[in-house]
Design goal:
Order of helices and strands: EEEHEEEHHHEEHHHHHHH
Mean pLDDT: 90
Protein name: Spore coat protein YutH
CATH class of the largest domain: Alpha Beta
Low-confidence stretches: none
Largest sheet: 6 strands, antiparallel
Organism: Gracilibacillus kekensis
Radius of gyration: 22 Å
Keywords: Capsid protein, Virion
Distance between the termini: 60 Å
CATH architecture of the largest domain: Alpha-Beta Complex
InterPro entries: CotS-like (IPR047175), Kinase-like_dom_sf (IPR011009)
Shape: globular
Number of helices: 11
CATH topology of the largest domain: Aminoglycoside 3'-phosphotransferase, Chain: A, domain 2
Strand content: 5-15%
Number of domains: 2
Helix content: 40-55%
Number of strands: 8
């Protein structure tokens, strides 16, 4: 038996079924997960209320924190903090629009896990953080070939990021909203979690729904004519038929795709791994495709840019 169960008023499950990604136990009805965490009690409470809401909305695969005998969600075991969570396994492939609809019904305004309306400030902070890392790597000796490649690429990354931040100024002036522009429950980084047997509550944030749409189609942007692929088109058509995007929503989606999260991911790989899956030449080739897809984004999706009064980005027109 895991020692964490001593702190909870539940019947102790006797069968351990996995160690990955967290120690996992099960009884006849539920799976239980021992999740290492560094979140505050307030943050954990918000995850709890969101998970309970999603269970009620038909998503029992969301891991839900359990309050301990002391009515706390974060438990110390030795010097480490954990949450004990439960969920039911799902074999359904839920639609992203259905998940967002459930999130729209959430009756509270989160404080700790909301990013809604804060993208520009968060992006500025993120670039400042990576700038500090860049300065550190710039003076590091000896430097691997991957580190040197990143150092050469970083000014380009900053330039695109600053352009995305400036574009957000334009988006914030847009007044054509509709009801689907309200915040909902989204993923910090959407990677098709809705097809998985469990969804980890610590991956959830409260934000605009286009956050997930952007991260779904971002990988397509790295391929030649990726937006025209059947998979990408069918995803967008299915989503928009259920939850149409407003003019503001389309612009916000474009702004998020402008911000080079995928290139910052590459930086993280460079920092934390000696084996790189992608060479700098592959990164540059992918980014050339990405820029072309940004340039033709609305055209490929059959949207008249004049109808949404979109800004023309000179650096893309010259690409």
């Amino acid at each position: 038996m895991h020692p964490i169960f001593l702190h909870y008023p539940i019947q102790v499950p006797t069968k351990q079924v996995s160690e990955q990604p967290y120690p996992t136990f099960m009884d006849q009805s539920y799976y239980y997960f021992v999740v290492p965490t560094n979140v505050s009690e307030r943050y954990a409470l918000e995850l709890y209320t969101i998970a309970v809401h999603l269970h009620q909305q038909g998503f029992p695969q969301i891991t839900c924190p359990i309050p301990s005998v002391h009515n706390q969600f974060v438990t110390m075991i030795g010097k480490e903090k954990f949450m004990l969570c439960y969920a039911k396994k799902s074999t359904d492939k839920n639609k992203l629009s259905s998940f967002h609809k459930a999130g729209f019904q959430y009756p509270y305004q989160p404080d700790s896990i909301t990013n809604y309306g804060n993208w520009k400030e968060l992006w500025i902070t993120k670039i400042d953080q990576y700038e500090a890392i860049y300065q550190q790597l710039y003076h590091e000796r000896p430097a691997s070939i991957y580190i040197r490649d990143f150092i050469n690429l970083f000014p380009y990354i900053v330039g695109i990021a600053e352009n995305a931040i400036q574009y957000m100024n334009h988006v914030e002036q847009e007044t054509q909203f509709h009801q689907h522009d309200q915040p909902t429950i989204t993923f910090g980084r959407f990677v098709d979690q809705l097809s998985e047997p469990f969804i980890w509550c610590n991956q959830l944030v409260y934000d605009h729904p286009v956050r997930d749409i952007a991260e779904k189609i971002r990988p397509f942007m790295m391929n030649n004519n990726g937006l025209s692929s059947e998979e990408c088109r069918s995803f967008l058509q299915e989503y928009a038929s259920d939850l149409p995007l407003s003019i503001f929503g389309w612009k916000l989606l474009y702004a998020r795709l402008l911000f080079p999260i995928h290139l910052l991911d590459f930086m993280d790989l460079v920092r934390h791994s000696s084996e790189q899956k992608l060479t700098i030449n592959q990164i540059i080739e992918n980014q050339a495709n990405y820029e072309e897809n940004l340039r033709t984004f609305f055209y490929q999706l059959g949207i008249d840019e004049r109808q949404i009064n979109n800004l023309q980005l000179d650096w893309l027109l010259d690409a």
